[in-house]
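Kindly review this record before class:
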Amino acid sequence: MIVSPTGLAGLALIALGMVCTPGPNMIYLLSRSILQGRLAGVISLAGVVLGFLCYMLATALGLTALMLAVPLAYEVVKWAGALYLLWMAWNSVRPGAGSALQPRRDLKADRPARLFAMGFLTSLLNPKIAIFYVSLLPQFIDPERGRVLAQSLVLGATQVAISFTVNLLIVLAAGGIASWFAARPTWLQVQRWVMGSLLAGFAVRMAFDKRPV
């Protein structure tokens, strides 16, 4: 086996904990699935997964080490991600905005290409994903086994598979969540502001994160 069973299990548990923690990807997929349906959620998820794959391949090839070595590279991605999250937060709380958990028949549906692109950007514009791969994957690679590139790809693919499975379950369950909120209008307003606050909080935290030394 390319990767040790213990190392693979350890990374899988960490990946599961990471994807189960609410974050921008989960919020975006949930809102898209409710507003446009499961198909839109799946298309958006495909974009999110592509973002993971880009970071996985970059890590395996050693390219994301640039974000640790070159301060400007890290800062550019960090601030682009923070501004993107703030834009999403504003669209959640702006006057006239509806709740992401409130089905709307008058919603202008985004085209598949835009859904895919938005999912991709939500995943890609987050330097924490790159830092996660750069700092975590090496801990589960055993040089004595050789084939370091192959080990990196197997570990990365494991994380991507777990993230895809959990997020797909979120997309498929979004309709039931929407029905629950539809019967409780007050909670729709609460949810809208909570969602906006979470996104803004993620943006502020990202903006003030320091580059790992």
User: Anything to note?
Assistant: Residues 90 and 196 are 7 Å apart (CA to CA). DSSP finds nine helices and no strands in the chain.
